Amino acid sequence: MKPLLSIGLIAGIAAAVSGCAHNSVVADDSSGTGVIFGSLGIWGNNNSRTIEAGSSLKKVSIIGDGNEIIIEDGVKLTVVEIWGQDNTISIPEGLVIRQPWIGTGNRIIRRPATKVVSDAPQAGETPAEQTPPQDDPSSP
User: Fold this and answer.
1) What's the rounded Cα separation, in Å, for the pair 94 and 16?
2) Upper half-sphere CA count for residue 4 (Cβ side, 13 Å)
3) pLDDT tens-digit series, residues 9-31
4) Do 67 and 84 touch, CB atoms closer than 8 A?
5) What is the pLDDT of residues 103-117, one digit of tens each?
6) What are phi and psi of 34, to 5 degrees?
7) Coil, strand or helix: which one is 7?
């Protein structure tokens, strides 16, 4: 009986842990930024996280209220799941995600893609001619 109970307990723990996030944050009122791989779990209230470009996530799980998550351009993400209220997720407009949640007041904000504007000439272009400053004839 004892070996059967041990095997059942180990199987139950393995099943419970298999759905948990690899990168977990268990806190209130914290913030952080970084490149993350695998999955991210946030348990707590009023946390702020920025997931930087280059991250590859299967899932972001939020269990709590009032959290803010910013997903930068260039992040691969499949699922955002939320168990709580008044959470905000900001994602690039082209990112397609599944978004199951339980709670009220949760928002997904889709940002337009950011474009880098540069004054430097592009390949094959010549810089515009610059005219030297003219001397003012009325000045001594």
Assistant:
1) 33
2) 1
3) 565 554 444 455 568 889 899 99
4) yes
5) 889 999 999 876 666
6) 170, 170
7) helix
